[in-house]
Prior knowledge:
It contains 26 helices and four strands.
Amino acid sequence: MYTYNPSHHSGDGLRSSGIPEKQPYVRSTAMAPADRKVMEVEMKEKGRPAEPEEPEREQWGAKMDFMLSMLGYCVGLGNVWRFPYLCYKNGGGAFLIPYLIMLTFAGLPLFFMELALGQYASLGPVTIWRCVPLFKGIGIAMCIMSGLVCIYYNMIIAWSLYYLFASFTSMLPWRTCDNWWNTPNCVETSAVANATNKTDNYTRISSSEEYFHERVLKYSVDLGNNSTARGIEHTGTMSWELALVLLLAWIIVFACLCKGVKSSGKVVYFTATFPYIVLIILLIRGAILPGAREGIIFYIKPDFNRLRDSQVWYDAASQIFYSLGVAFGGILAMSSYNKFNNNCHRDAVLIALANCGTSVFAGFAIFSYIGYMAHELKMPVGKVVASGSGLAFIAYPEALTLMPISPLWSILFFFMLLTLGLDSQFVMLETIVTALSDEFPTLLRQHKTWVLLAICICLYLLGLTQCTQAGIFWLEMMNWYSAGFCLIVTALIMAIGISWVYGIKRFSADIKEMIGYEPNIYFKACWMVISPALMLFIFIFSLVQYSPVVYNGIAYPDWAVTLGLLMAFFSILMIPLVGIIVVAKNKGSFTERFKKAITPDEKWGPAIMSQEQKEWKSTEGIDNPATIYDPGTMENGTDQPPLYDPRSINRYPLYDPRSLQQDPIRNGGSINDTSYSSRL
Length: 680
């Protein structure tokens, strides 16, 4: 029995078998238009529609394009405005212990899982679930969460642009209290310490806080009769300034992504590296300021008693989880443009460690200025520290007003925030575009620029709600619900689906096929047991500790809380809903339908193939693939021998058309020839 190579099936190719020769089936080495026409006719004769040829899928221009894009995706605003605060809040240097443990047993393994899965199949977060069709809803949930985050994340980028433009002045506008937006309660930064010493019940409202709330956001709605109201139900008017900077933010994102990863891969050479340059400059300048030492000590001083608190471990796990961007689909999308043999194992370790190192490093730069501000205001460090938008747009800008040449430092800081946000925004938006173009390749892949433009326009229009006077409340609601516990649930189901349904042995073999060796026992144990257990802990803890969204002490009405919960459940409901649809569309009994839903699709496999394989892949659908050629098929009146499946080369050693390239029988040699393929 011989393996079959169609290129050798001609003339006297069957003389040794004793089978009467049939009309040979000849394939040219190139897919010419005429060949394509013949193939379409043959497929119609078989009763199957001709499949349109899919456009080529792009790849990264260079290895560094991918590394910097992934680093920029992971190192975002949370590394600068959330991690330092969590570190101070949860025991200083002692917080690094649960942080590193969660990185080791949850963050890194899941990051590697997504990276390897996307690279293996070169498919986006939705189509990748050909490996287990039952879980295709995971990819849709990822895209929904990425889309929701894109809406409010670009608004934060727009705020950074607003502050950046406002910094081009001789004196920062949030330095004084004699502006039209200030209230009688405003106290300039230089007078805060004296004002707080006058009375015990004094409520501090700094000029930078009023600038953010009353000038930028304008979140106090005038109700008439000298009364104002604040809340998501008080929409007020649209801010044309915010609408314009938001439009500019979307134009920047579109311009950088319009050519796909080819263009974004070059932009990240600047946007991913510039924040490090600014952080180094800020740290050097901050380290020589008075009070910087106290701020840094406050940041890293360990309090090991805090490790007994489960909240500390929850904060560590959630920070690692959100910082690495697991289950957003971005890792799958970016790795899908890699070369098939790229060492994704090494990349996962390097990127994860660089991300965590950046968080720790950023804390030193941030707290040196917090310590300086506390020193100048003669206040404890704990009373001036903040997190989130409060740190980026209130506390840190206030610290900048106390420095010489404050506009220069303000420009550097907000330009750094801009680049930090853009990198993450690039990947989340590319995730959606990649998912659509891979799910509908013949329809959308050639028109990715138009798809991107349509998505940008839609998300911009949805983001205009955050440009109203109630905008900050909409943003905080989306931040609270869009990627909270639903992200944990998605990641948990993903880990279970790959490790237990697709199979840890099969997944490990796929990784070996790419990089030459299987992942070690550490990764396998984490994928199967440890990481899912930690995610289950995070999910249960988040439910136990759940509280409705609140901003600046202002509670949300019931309808807003309900809307937020619907937003959260909308994404994860896609998982069971799509699973039910997949099972229902299959044929046979329920058991047969379900079994097919958890079995890899016939199209599943590596998408990166040789030119010969790509040409033969275009004939898929004419005949059923066969792993071994059986001459008996010729005796049954078959006009053409069965065609092979190019993906079977790596999976079925006996079925390799290359094994007959040295066939002596077909070329006049002897059966004992040493060049005869050992695979026969």
